[in-house]
Amino acid sequence: MLPTTSECRICSGVVNEFFDFGRQPLADAFREPGSDEQEFFYRLAVGACADCTMVQLMEEVPRDRMFHNGYPYHSSGSVVMQAHFEETAKGFLAAELSGPDPFIVEIGSNDGAMLKVIAAAGVRHLGVEPSGGVADLAAAEGITVRKDFFEESTALETLEAHGTADVIYSANTFSHIPYVDSVLKGVAALLSPTGSFVFEDPYFADIVERTSFDQIYDEHFFLFSASSVANMVTRFGLELVDVKRLPTHGGEVRYTVAHAGSRPVSAAVAELLREEREQGLTSTATLERFGANVEATRERLLEKLRSLRDAGKRVVGYGATAKSATVLNYCGIDSDLVEFICDSTPAKQGRLTPGSHIPVRKPEDFALPYPDYAVLFAWNHADEVIAKEQGFRDAGGRWIRYVPEVTVL
Ligand code: SAM
User: Fold this and answer.
1) Start and end of every Methyltransferase putative zinc binding domain (predicted)?
2) Which candidate among 9, 64, 103, 387 keeps its CA 20 to 30 Å from the CA of 344?
């Protein structure tokens, strides 16, 4: 079979596929029990551009299928993320937003976890958020929100109505947007001459190092690195001026981008670019090793869950995360192996996980009674979950993790 290729969304170069997860459902399409509605499936495969190094999905899912009134992810669902956004907002208020009448735009403001701090400080702001349900939650907190997709037209209308932005911020959203061309033209027009575009997204080097293949799903269209981001922004008259590794969501990088030549480039940029070159981050050898590690994780996880089932142990899951969709469907895990999954998001409770159809229940059901084992699908919030559920450990329960490898804690 010939290797599969596609055209790079950034530079039109050749994207070479390196892993195929097969047919997958939408990661956030939690299903009503008894629903006879046809589930939407697409081919989840990932490739790297031979020219600009950008790692990207081979197939794009239409955006309205993913981001709509019922979009279930709430930024404020984790206390760790709430603290992260509060600290981020305070950082902006103390620096970039400390001049006269500053203005900040957030792309993908969700339920307003970051902007509520900005709004409380009385600073001009605009959240751009297409998912109506979460946008309404933010508006109810007194945050100014435009219910829309951010793209060039939205940016130009914002510029017309409010003037240039000192900061454009985006967390866990820019990597969700295949139409980069439109977004970055909009950013370049809206950003003030001295402003910064700051975005944070899962870091491909962390995904490779930890075999966190569950970061790959429909919404995560791009898996960024310093190298691919630097190449991407240059095409729009912008420049990568700073990078910072973050522990959020299992390993991210905060990229700071500015108009080319408007700011000094920090030493951290050259350092991360050098590390990526030395690692051979998108070399064939690295990508093949990643693929082999993904297959090994699947085998070990299935072996563990099957042996627990055969020994008559009760196993449930913790965190019906979007990430869990890739693990469950790629590994073929259903309610025969994992009885139910607890999740604190009301919009997911009482529903079934996409494709694998495992019931989602309230976290309170976890202790009724405690199971023998719990698979930590929310592994990126491990410290928060394990501390909150100390009673499970005290009752003799054991956690199962699969990142960076299958381990029983
Ligand atoms: N920024 C929040 C955070 O980090 O918790 C939300 C992240 S959530 C994973 C992704 C968000 O991006 C969703 O709320 C979705 O509706 C929004 N989104 C998707 N495409 C967008 C676009 N073109 N412009 C603005 N927001 C978008």
Assistant:
1) 8-67
2) 64
Residues 236 and 88 in one domain: yes
CA of 109 to the centre of ligand 1 (A): 6
Atom of ligand 1 nearest to the CA of 81: 5
| Residue ending a domain, choose from 262, 284, 306 | 284
Instruction: Give me the phi and psi of 14, to 5 degrees please.
Output: -90, 125
Please give the Cα distance from 328 to 213 (Å, whole number).
12
> Which residues are within 8 A (CB) of 51 and not within 5 positions of it... i.e. 6 or more apart?
8, 11, 13, 14
- 343 ligand 1 Cβ < 6 A: no
Look at ligand 1, atom 25, and give the residue with the nearest C-alpha: 108
Reduced to 3 states, what is the DSSP secondary structure of residue 252? strand
Structural domain of 154: 75-284
* Beta pairing, strands 398-401 & 407-408: antiparallel
Q: For ligand 1, what atom is nearest to the CA of residue 75?
A: 5
Q: Using the 3D structure, point to which of 224, 249, 284 is the last residue of a domain.
A: 284
Q: Could you state, in chain order, the average pLDDT of each consecutive group of 10 residues for the chain (409 residues)?
A: 84 97 96 94 97 97 96 92 97 97 98 98 98 98 97 98 98 98 98 98 98 97 98 98 96 98 98 98 97 98 98 98 97 97 94 98 95 96 92 97 96
Model's pTM, two decimal places? 0.96
Q: What is the ipTM of this complex?
A: 0.99
**Same domain assignment for residues 241 and 158:** yes
Least Cα distance to 224 among 211, 208, 238 occurs for 208
State if residue 129 touches ligand 1 by the CB under 6 angstroms criterion: yes
State if residue 135 touches ligand 1 by the CB under 6 angstroms criterion.
Answer: no
